[in-house]
# Entry
Amino acid sequence: MVVIRSERGTELGQVLLNVGDGPAPDFIAEQALADYIKASGADYPFSRSGRVLRPANAQDLNDQQHLDRSTSEEAGYCNDQIRQLELRMKLVAVEHLLGGERIVFYFTADHRVDFRELVKRMAGQYHTRIEMRQVGARDEARLVGDYERCGLRCCCQQYLKFLKPVSMRMAKTQKATLDPTKISGRCGRLMCCLRYEDATYEELSAALPRKNTWVRTADGKVGKVVEVQALTQLVRLLLANKSQLVVPNEEIAQRDVPEPVAPPEEAEPPPEPAWKPPRREPPEPRQAVPLAALDEVLEELAIPELEEPAEAESAAAPAEPPTRAEAPAPGGGQGAATRGRRSRRRRRRKKSPHPQALSAPPQAAAAKPSPPQPSGPPAQVAGRRGKRRRRRKKKSGGNRPGGPPPG
# Structure
């Protein structure tokens, strides 16, 4: 342990390696250190501004232990002041330097915090310089973290000096699970170790053909790349006949070849149904019977002609004396013609049933037959009845004694 003077002040440090010529376990050459810093990148936090004051003695170690025990009291007082001022911030850790000239408070917050009043109160309490430093989730894990799920100390706390961003693309490239609870560290962010092998996976993936491209193997087979494996350097191909083939990357002779033209597929007949309905043959056409042949058959059977029911009833009924309206008019056959028309009208009424009787249900018709009613609107039915009544009066008026002469 040594006492050093850095940009922050007097601190207690630990010697890891000596720079210079010496045994390999305890010394490192200047050129090797320069190569290490260059390989770490331009953002590597390396500075030559500090210097070693002296080796640490027992008093220096006791002072540092006393300062470390006082940090819990300083953190409690700071949290009380944060609650009194109602500041939206969370205190993470407190660091007291060896010289006692500075106390560093690390906190996290979602937004910018105005802590000027808090600094004034802390400086009045401890009479030293107060430094408030806002850190992120990864820096918080570096300060308070201990061991990770792999069983080792957190990488950010043990040897990482600069925390570079880690993206989800790195997890996808390495075929890792995408469950955030399995690839996240103590800080709640993606684990830093996902970045270690990213460069190797990028180099191996660059040697493989791209997906959905057509390649030709050493055997002359042409297929479409559907899947690649970076570590094993295997490529899965989909051939033109819909079969799949896995070949090593070394056996691919040509890349980005044109897509082969597939032969036309023969149309397969549709499957026959399990049950077929029976085929119905068309009926034979009926032959028309001539009328002459039908008349001959009727004559052979000697079927008498049927008389009309109205004429049969008139013949069977006894003769009634002529009424006054039906008295024969002198000098003409007009009355006989009128009677003939009336008898024909009665026969027609008896033969043709009323349309309402046909549409009525069979039970109602059988229960009580309804008399035929004239069809049409009431106004038309009344008009027809009036016309018939006037026509009868006009015709029968000429037969009355003293009536007007027939026109």
Remarks:
- The two ends are 157 Å apart (CA to CA).
- The chain is about 35% helix and 15% strand.
